[in-house]
Amino acid sequence: MPSNHAVRQVTARQVLRNPRIWVLPAVIVGLVSLLLSLVYMGGILNPRGDLHRLPIGLVNADQGAVVAGQPTNLGATVVAGIAAAPDPRAQIAWRQLDESAAMDQLASGKLYSVLTVRQGFTAAVSALPAAGQPEVARPTMTVFTNPGAGSLASSLATSIAQAAAHSASLELGRNLTARLPAEGASATNAARLQLSDPVTVDTAVGHPIGTHSGLGLTAFYYTLLLVLAGFLGGNVIANGVDVALGYAASELGPWRRQLPTVPISRTQTLAITCTMSVVLSLLTSSLIMLACVAILGMDASHLPLLWIFSVCATAAVGLGVQALLAAFGGIGQLVSMFVFIALSLPSSGATVPLQALPDFYRVLSWFEPMRQLTDGVRAILYFDARADAGLNRAWMMIGVGTVLALAFGFAMTTYYDRKGLHRIVPEHLREPQPSA
């Protein structure tokens, strides 16, 4: 027979009619949605408008020629004109370099593109008015791309370099056309058309990457996998430890299990979760590399270095998550999401180059982990693991982030323990508590 003292169950309608149950979820969900929209969309809406000092190399490989009895180097004139062109918003950072230095900086990711005035430029230009024939070899400028810098970064730099070369060609054409009457030369309409825009602008890959490199996006997605492994792993580990220690219930479908609570300090709990995050980063990083490189065939070299870097990067993120969860409790999940995901992705410079982001995101990029880790992965995958391609900075920031996470996390838990803010259930309050 049913008990006369059975508890009368509350219906869903009764709960939903209570305004108080709506307030906190509505505020948190609404605020998070608003902030995520502002953060993500704010960084990508106008890359060209936000452009600031995009680094592009400028090279004069022309050796000059004797024109009308005078030594002349039109390549130097063209390069100087491009570099001095009005740029009131400082959108472009032209770097005048020799050919060797430009290609070296292209190979380390310091330049997104290189515009080169090719050899024989002066001789080819001087032959045009004299010959006045379309079949005369045209002077050439070449735009060297850098797909390893990212598809959007390389595309922006390439289009800017092409536009600058075309503008220089038109200016040169105006000068050549104006000289025809003074020199008493005549030219056909086809020759005049050629003289009006005399320079051929071609494009070549300056620093090639593999065909299985996602057009320069594999570095970003690989880094994202490392960050997600550290972030999600940190949350799963923290919840699993709470379940094992009896401070959270384990639910699987209709089954719920609550283990006896273990009297343990916050500091000792953090030591457990941090150790597990570091150890399990070995597993997650290995599986990520297995999936990306061995199974999917992603182009990658320096595999031992990539594995070590991946482990350290994932561990650093995991330690940061554990520190925030220990310091802020349940709200720590939201805090860590904004630190490692929401604010980190748009300021990483991986999909939209840093030079094409608003100032707010460029400031974030100084310390947000995705930028640092992407630079390291990109250097390993695309730039022969060169230290000056961002790998040195990445290692340094992993070290700094790890130290800060541990210092912050253990400082907060030690403070809580000393203040008696233990995670202890009532039945343990009468028992002596172990020290941290």
Layout of strands and helices, then pairs:
Layout: H1 12-16, H2 20-42, E1 54-60, E2 65-67, E3 70-72, H3 74-83, E4 92-96, H4 99-106, E5 113-117, H5 121-131, E6 140-145, H6 151-182, H7 189-196, E7 200-205, H8 218-244, E8 250-252, E9 255-257, H9 266-295, H10 303-328, H11 332-342, H12 359-364, H13 369-382, H14 391-418
Parallel strand pairs: 1-4, 1-5, 6-7
Antiparallel strand pairs: 2-3, 5-6, 8-9
Helix pairs in contact: 6-7, 8-9, 8-10, 8-11, 8-13, 9-10, 9-14, 10-11, 10-13, 10-14, 13-14
In short:
With 436 residues, the chain is α/β, with parallel strands linked by helices.
Structural class: alpha/beta
> Would you report the number of β strands?
9
The H/E string reads HHEEEHEHEHEHHEHEEHHHHHH
Strand neighbour order, sheet with most strands: 4-1-5-6-7
Could you explain how this protein is built, in words?
The protein has 14 helices and 9 strands. A hairpin with a 2-residue loop joins strand 8 and strand 9 (about 255). Strands 4-1-5-6-7 form a 5-stranded mixed sheet, with helices on both faces. The chain has a two-stranded antiparallel sheet with strand order 2-3. It has a two-stranded antiparallel sheet with strand order 8-9. It has about 425 residues and is an alpha/beta fold. It is elongated.
